[in-house]
Amino acid sequence: MRGYIERVMHPERYHGHNRQPPFFEGWYFKLIDATEQHRYAVIPGIFLSHDAAKHHAFVQVLDGQTGESAYFSYPPEQFRAAADDFDVWVGPNHFRADGIRLRLEGEHLALQGELRFEGLVPWPVRWSAPGIMGPFGWLTFMECYHGVVSLDHTIQGELRLEGQTLRFDGGQGYIEKDWGESFPSSYIWMQSNHFAQGDVCLTASIAHIPFKAFSFPGYIVGFWQDGVLHRFTTYTGARLERLRVTDQHVEWVLSNSLYRLELFATRSRGGLLHGPTRVEMHKRIMETLQATIEVRLTDVRMRRERFNGVGRNGGLEVFGDLSGLVK
Asked: Which CATH number fits the domain 2-324, given the four candidates 1.10.220.10, 1.10.10.10, 3.50.50.100, 2.40.370.10?
């Protein structure tokens, strides 16, 4: 019981110790340099299938500028994770909340270097709401769990890509993670922490959530502005007013008793990533790091606009049959 409580209260840590397949866990590091010319997503993780031959650890890399992606696979025994800290090794690659070290050598990509992260802004963890999942984080039968390790932080260090040095000093980063049995069958995810106003981050997702004998559209949206985190989630009773998806845009409006949040994301070209099912890591998810996300926050009682800005370098994924989500 103590180990279970520790895991729930520390969503950033590895949750797979002694777990039986199917199981996956992965961390998502978004890396943007100060010039915003170099944009990368680096995703380490582990996948365990009912078919032991498909067990493996991995590191995925998405070049947000070109849309090219690379998948590095390792034997499962080359995945190592501390029980009492977020401290993960995948082969020679090391991942922590405060930095990463990459030693990736492949046929189509060679990426090495070290980056340090400073001034992390974690999603608050409380007994009543241990992270972004809220009270759902305490349940043991969810298909997929989600965590936000850092909404925003600065980056120092450099990476070497095919002999070219990429300097990240003064850049910005974001870290989140997922674990469980499988990704949802359909979902929308968007994120940006590059706004002209500074000290601002949006992370938002809505997914088809199986829940025992029924299912429902579950959403978890956080808008962090100047040290204040505005939550619009299923478990806080936020209302989904509108969600419309076209080939060019995602329009999403939510509200609670205090605020109304309007999101308008412009879709852009991206690259394919592998996503976990119960059977395999399937190359099926199109993600971009070039979306723009217009955000408007309104105080509904004062009828006053609290924020209006556009997020750059936006991460955006739209996947699956959205008919059960869109309204």
From this structure: 2.40.370.10
